[in-house]
Amino acid sequence: MAGFDKVVGSYAEAMAGLEDGMTVIAGGFGLCGIPENLIAEIKRKGTRDLTIVSNNCGVDGFGLGILLEDRQIKKMVSSYVGENALFEQQLLAGELEVELTPQGTLAEKMRAGGAGIPAFYTATGYGTPVGEGKEVREFNGRPYILEESIRGDFAIVKAWKGDRYGNLVYRHTAQNFNPMAATAGKITVVEIEQLVEPGELEPSQIHTPGIYVDRVIVGSFEKRIEQRTVRSAN
After folding, report:
1. CB within 8 A of 102, min separation 6: which ones?
2. Residues linked to residue 190 through DSSP beta bridges, in sequence order
3. Of 130, 84, 82, which Cα lies nearest the Cα of 73?
């Protein structure tokens, strides 16, 4: 079964083939479940003019935010961008194109792309700037706008456990955009915390089947907390 082994030995190998101008779909929510080392490899490669599809753009100095430092991102397709001052600066200066997308719509764009569905209708965004210029149809007396699905040249994903065949399990909140992103890349690269042998994962517990995954790499992670809120001692 050696031909099914998807584990690679370096981050350079994991991101081989990424070129300027490509579209990258990134899993994660805030800083939870982000493929932080794959993002760092994109920065190291210096790949430019990228379109990044992700719920948000990390924070200053971490996550996808580090790709803004050398202006590697040309366009962001995202839902929330409020934690990154550099993002705001580049947007207001006209240096960064941004396509704001409602969160559920963004998730469905990825899921539909992975399922081979080119477009879908949703009521979310109708009558707002999000819906401007989009086709409208009425179903059961309610207007809906047509949204196109998303496919990426690459999808980069973070998982908790995975086997050599690419079967994945996500942990807790990291099961956010990662499962949808994993299906929507022409090349899907996953970094995992734990590599297990084939057969160790209970089939009913697998969140992403290996058929969607092209490359797997085992990493170590900082797991930075975006905003720490604690109760006072007294």
Report:
1. 79, 124, 125, 130
2. 157, 216
3. 84
| Residue 155 included in any domain | yes
Report CA Rg, the chain.
Answer: 18
d(CA 110, CA 234): 45
Q: What whole-number distance in Å separates Cα of residue 213 and Cα of residue 105?
A: 23
C-alpha span between 18 and 41 (Å, rounded)? 10
Reported pTM: 0.91
Which is nearest to 150 in space by CA: 38, 33, 53, 64?
A: 53
The CA angle 67-125-115, to the nearest 5 degrees, is 65
Over residues 98-123, the pLDDT tens digits come to 999 999 999 999 999 999 999 999 99
Q: Rounded to an integer, what distance in angstroms lies between the CA atom of residue 64 and that of residue 52?
A: 9
Region 111-139 average pLDDT = 96
48 assigned to some structural domain: yes
Specify the CATH number for the domain of residue 200. Answer: 3.40.1080.10
Please enumerate in sequence order all residues whose Cβ is within 8 A of that of 90, keeping only pairs 6 or more positions apart, or say none.
68, 71, 96
**∠ at Cα 31 (176, 118), nearest 5°?**
40
3-state secondary structure at position 67 = helix
Task: Determine, yes or no, domain membership for 6.
Answer: yes
